[in-house]
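Changelog entry: the mitogen-activated protein kinase kinase kinase record was regenerated in this release. Current contents:
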Amino acid sequence: MSGFYPDHQLPLLPVPDLSNQVERTTEIIGRGGYGTVYKGKWVGTATTTTTPATIAIKTIDLVPLRDEAQLKRRFKQITRELSLWCKIQHKNILPLLGIARINDDANIPAFVCPWMENGNAREFRSRNPHFPPLLILYDIINGLQYLHTFEPEIVHGDIKAVNVLINNRCEACLCDFGLSRFLTDNTLWKTTATHAGGTARWMSPELMSGDASIPTKESDVYAYAMTCYEILSGDVPFKSISNDMVILYKVTKGQRPDRTESFHSDFIWDIITRCWEQEPNDRPSTEEVLELIRPKVDSLVESLSCRIIRRSPSPQPPAVVQQPPPPSPPPPGPQPQMRGVKLTTSDDKLVLFYVKALYDYKATIPEEFDFKVGDIIGVTATPEDGWWSGELVDVTRRHKGRNVFPSNYVCLV
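Regenerated structure tokens:
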């Protein structure tokens, strides 16, 4: 396949070339659009404390193309996705680490990004039923709102649960920008709804009927509603219908998936129904949805956190510690927050993440608890004064009412 794109060169882009630092394994994570995603790994001394231990590598499928025009369209798709991805940076967008030329044709790079061990949003929800789904829905609309307010504005064009990955902090990240476009660039899109991108179950009625020839911010909001339905119900929209033409007919006639018993919240169902309105102008913007959900998320996070006494800065670690000496502890203050997966504490607080003790600690007031080097603690709140709340994983050593400890005595597990 060498020389498949001999007359096409990628533009210079501000992304690292990791060709000699990464290696593709044979394990396929998924397929979609025009690419295949493999699990990858760093080679040699490439990995550092700031790079993820495992990576994902998206390669371009070089299927035979009919003519030069089709070849140019494929190359333009690749260039578009890469140029988009290297410009956007947001906590709810899957980051691009770089490119790697590992295909037979050196002109066609693979995309390198962090490996998301928690999988996509629907898989994550099925494995972690106690995790509040509202946090995932909030992250999705937060990432989508970032794209819609980017300069120039970006439409994703393929929002669905498989394109929402969950990182190790349990945050949702949008991925797969193969259908995305800048709103100022209409040249990359065909003019019929059947080629407008997306998947029928998540596609808005105006794209299906041909009233809109390209995805819009409004069609993204519609797809967001279907994605919310998918995550909360655990099934794709219109699960019982296998024929896309039947789905097209139902959607263009105003029919939507039925509410099931998994939708306990009228609040969330109301947002979903507003976002999948038949007329694009009747749907809320991403900013409006964000403003509706944000107070609920703030209230949820507050209810999951413990109340603790705010005091003076946490104590300094002891000068003499057990051998071998542990690494230097992190300074007190804000630390990376990993949102929780399950309820494990004695008072049913949500564990945000787990830490390991670097030093022995002896409680000085009734609210604190003792721990030893190597103890694992489930953290339930992380105030910025350096005093965190949590409990020992070892239930035999817990003391009721004692849940405060100094954050500079521990490190992330």
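The two ends are 45 Å apart (CA to CA).
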